[in-house]
């Protein structure tokens, strides 16, 4: 029972966190579509400068 | 070899005509080390990438000249004047030097060393064009590097030149002078000068043979065949996606999840509490699983559209559609953002930046969400699979077509009311056809698959959890789904859908969650109706109400990503207008479909 | 831009598919004119009408080695002479 409750809390926390980050990302206008085409202006991968 | 100051960044500006392989070269030089942003003050995208730690490449938009008033030309000009550029990488089409060198002449005005990259030298050779690179280099006073970008040949020479930085201004201060000694008074003069140079270093050894492009175009834009062929191509795409590859794979995935995965999980969890089991099976698997099974279909469709885009056929489509689009006051160029919109509305709206008039841009952006995006596919498929099994392709194709038809009429409506304006001049270049590189297609499709899975793993996962929570609890604790929070929310909204025939609280709430991302509608339904939607949905919908529902999904407000993009590109008022008009439109058309449909059924 | 008095001015609009002529000049909207000239449509350049769209508009013309689709209405602005 305890294990289940811990896992559930973790899952719920993760879900809320993901949603929050997602809304923040969307309203700041970043691409969020997961469906990028080759002519999408945002089609890119950002790699850290070494 | 000059010793570099290790902190100094060399910046090269990549510039050239459209359709000469600039993007291919940019991708080759920078790999995945790319970053896309905005030029300050204008809505033109700025693409930067790195070859290594020292060399930065800025990809400027494809332009023909520096002085014909477009935004792209203005920012290119100011960037080159800014003093930040050490090299100009001017990429030109070796088989079309006359026109390409016009820009080169203008670039010489900026007093920055130019590396002239002759791309597609293989095509030039085939056409019988022989170029003396040494002479060209001397006459133009630029470095000349021949390459074949699509095959990666010769690109290392460019990297070498940049890294060695032998010619950069910083190492030579002001004693080397890169500008033109001749200043041209008109376009005609410039072309005469170019002709003079080329006549000294280019020879033509064979007659102009009919190219493959010309032969293809004889058929593809033929007076009688063009439209039937276009429709046939669309039909083929749908067949490929739904009958031959996409759907069968999706069905396989579906039975894997429902008939193998779920029972196994049930066994694994057999000792656990009922509610925990429900969270995992009904919540997570029910939600995410309902959406993931459609990955094959989405990839199949995407593959087809990418193929068309890369082949050059899309420009022909814009050409074919121009007259029809003109009735809406737009130009054929608007067609391309609309086609992109069929994949995802968000990049579609962003690519409206490429249209030349503000009114064109706004109008296209408003019509874009009517282009049914990939995210709506799972909804169509789940309902079509449940109620119209065997006819999924027809149902989906009709929805896509309906979106286009509605857009056409709304376009005309807008043109005569909100967007009265004159036609802009319309010129579009028809590039050579090319066979899309398999590697590049595969890469893009894989990226897209990753993106879809990422979305499933994040938003759909999260919303499914939230929905599960809301559907199992209310103010007095854990409860039956019928008395839960979510049922309450659903019942509050559902009256609005009664005239449309699908007013269950479950449907209402699912549509609401669709604002997060359209795929979530299926995820939510998966959670609150229980996992096996194929069996349950026929009990909730009649064929007519199912169609009415699908029409509503097609036309109503898309996801927050799109609303946010609209706001960013066109302002809050435009975004609000878009949301509102679509809700009203969706409601009205669904109303007509539902009631009209029932009426017809009664008569027969 | 040369206008010959007494001689009727022909434009690309008047050409039929397959016909070639020499550019004489460009009239009309300055933006369009500049764009066309930058693309190479200057005096003395050969311009060929390749075909019309199935619905009659736009039309495909070829000059300086590449194909361009342009609306008939805008093609009226490209004045030509010496039809070949």
Summarize the topology.
The complex is a heterotrimer of chains A (50), B (604) and C (84).
Chain A: H1 2-27
Chain B: E1 10-16, H1 22-30, E2 34-38, E3 45-50, E4 55-59, H2 71-81, E5 87-93, H3 97-107, E6 114-119, H4 121-126, E7 129-131, H5 133-140, E8 143-146, H6 155-164, H7 187-201, E9 202-204, H8 212-220, H9 226-244, H10 246-268, H11 274-292, H12 295-311, H13 313-326, H14 335-341, H15 345-350, H16 358-367, H17 377-387, H18 392-416, E10 427-430, H19 438-472, E11 473-474, E12 477-478, H20 485-493, H21 505-513, H22 519-528, H23 533-540, H24 543-555, H25 560-570, H26 572-603
Parallel strand pairs in B: 1-4, 1-5, 5-6, 6-8
Antiparallel strand pairs in B: 2-3, 3-4, 7-9, 11-12
Helix pairs in contact in B: 3-7, 5-7, 9-12, 10-11, 10-12, 11-19, 11-22, 12-19, 17-23, 17-24, 18-24, 19-22, 20-21, 21-22, 24-26, 25-26
Chain C: E1 10-11, E2 20-26, H1 30-38, E3 46-52, E4 59-63, E5 66-70, H2 72-75, E6 78-81
Antiparallel strand pairs in C: 1-6, 2-3, 2-6, 3-4, 4-5
So what's the overall shape of chain C?
globular
Distance between the amino and carboxyl termini of chain C: 20 Å
Q: What's the quaternary structure here?
A: heterotrimer
The CATH class name of chain C reads Mainly Beta
Number of H- or I-type helical stretches of chain A: 1
> Portion of residues in helices of chain A?
40-55%
The tally of beta strands of chain C, per DSSP, is 6
Specify the CATH homologous superfamily of chain C: Ferrous iron transport protein A (FeoA)
């Amino acid at each position: 029972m305890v294990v289940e409750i811990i896992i559930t809390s973790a899952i719920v926390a993760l879900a809320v966190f993901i949603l929050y980050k997602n809304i923040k990302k969307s309203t700041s206008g970043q691409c969020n579509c997961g469906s990028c085409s080759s002519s999408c202006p945002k089609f890119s991968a950002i790699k850290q400068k070494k | 070899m000059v010793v570099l100051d290790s902190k100094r960044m060399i910046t090269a500006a990549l510039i050239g005509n459209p359709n000469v392989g600039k993007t291919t070269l940019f991708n080759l030089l920078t790999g995945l080390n790319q970053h896309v942003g905005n030029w300050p003050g204008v809505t033109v995208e700025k693409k930067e990438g790195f070859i290594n730690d020292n060399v930065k490449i800025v990809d400027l938009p494809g332009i023909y000249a520096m002085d014909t008033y477009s935004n792209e030309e203005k920012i290119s000009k100011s960037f080159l004047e800014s003093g930040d550029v050490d090299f100009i990488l001017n990429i030109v089409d070796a088989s079309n030097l006359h026109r390409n060198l016009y820009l080169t002449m203008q670039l010489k005005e900026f007093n920055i060393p130019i590396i002239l990259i002759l791309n597609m030298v293989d095509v030039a050779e085939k056409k019988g064009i022989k170029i003396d690179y040494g002479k060209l280099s001397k006459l133009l006073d630029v470095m000349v590097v021949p390459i074949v970008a699509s095959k990666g040949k010769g690109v290392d020479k460019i990297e070498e030149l940049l890294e060695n930085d032998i010619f950069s201004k910083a190492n030579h201060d002001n004693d080397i002078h890169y500008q033109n000694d001749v200043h041209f008074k008109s376009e005609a003069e410039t072309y005469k000068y170019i002709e003079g140079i080329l006549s000294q270093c280019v020879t033509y050894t064979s007659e102009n043979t009919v190219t493959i492009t010309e032969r293809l175009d004889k058929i593809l834009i033929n007076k009688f065949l063009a439209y039937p062929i276009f429709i046939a191509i669309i039909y083929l795409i749908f067949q490929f996606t739904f009958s031959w590859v996409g759907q069968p794979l999706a069905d396989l995935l579906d039975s894997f999840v429902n008939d193998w995965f779920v029972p196994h999980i049930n066994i694994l969890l057999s000792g656990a509490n009922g509610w925990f089991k429900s969270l995992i099976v009904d919540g997570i698997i029910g939600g995410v699983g309902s959406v993931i099974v459609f990955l094959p279909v989405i990839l199949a469709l995407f593959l087809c559209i990418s193929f068309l885009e890369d082949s050059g056929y899309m420009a022909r489509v814009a050409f074919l559609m121009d007259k029809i689009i003109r009735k809406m006051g737009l130009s054929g160029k608007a067609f391309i953002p609309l086609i992109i919109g069929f994949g995802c509305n968000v990049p579609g709206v962003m690519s409206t930046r490429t249209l030349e008039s503000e009114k064109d841009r706004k109008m296209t952006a408003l019509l874009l969400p009517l282009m049914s995006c990939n995210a709506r596919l799972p909804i169509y498929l789940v309902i079509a699979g449940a109620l119209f099994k065997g006819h999924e392709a027809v149902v989906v194709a009709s929805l896509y077509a309906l979106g286009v038809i509605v857009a056409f009429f709304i376009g005309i409506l807008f043109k005569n009311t909100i967007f009265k304006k004159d036609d802009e001049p319309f010129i579009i270049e028809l590039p050579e056809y090319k066979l899309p590189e398999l590697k590049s297609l595969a890469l893009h499709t894989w990226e897209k698959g990753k993106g879809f899975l990422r979305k499933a793993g994040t938003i759909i996962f999260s919303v499914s959890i939230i929905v599960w929570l809301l559907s199992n609890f209310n103010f007095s604790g854990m409860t039956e789904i019928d008395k839960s929070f979510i049922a309450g929310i659903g019942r509050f909204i559902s009256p609005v859908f009664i005239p449309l025939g699908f007013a269950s609280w479950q449907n209402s709430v699912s549509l609401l969650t669709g604002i997060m991302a359209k795929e979530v509608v299926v995820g939510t339904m998966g959670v609150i109706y229980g996992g096996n939607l194929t069996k349950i949905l026929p009990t909730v919908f009649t064929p007519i109400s199912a169609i009415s529902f699908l029409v509503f999904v097609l036309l109503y407000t898309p996801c927050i990503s799109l609303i946010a993009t609209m706001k960013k590109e066109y302002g809050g008022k435009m975004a609000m207008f878009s949301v509102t008009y679509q809700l009203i439109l969706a409601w009205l058309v669904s109303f007509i479909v539902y009631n009209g449909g029932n009426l017809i059924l009664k008569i027969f | 831009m040369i206008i010959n008095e007494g001689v009727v001015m022909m434009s690309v609009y008047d050409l039929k598919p397959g016909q070639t002529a020499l550019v004489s000049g460009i009239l009309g909207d300055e933006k369009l004119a500049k764009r066309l000239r930058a693309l190479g449509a200057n005096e003395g350049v050969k311009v060929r009408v390749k075909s019309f769209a199935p619905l009659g508009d736009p039309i495909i013309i070829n000059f300086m080695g590449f194909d361009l689709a342009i609306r008939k209405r805008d093609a009226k602005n490209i004045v030509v002479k010496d039809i070949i």
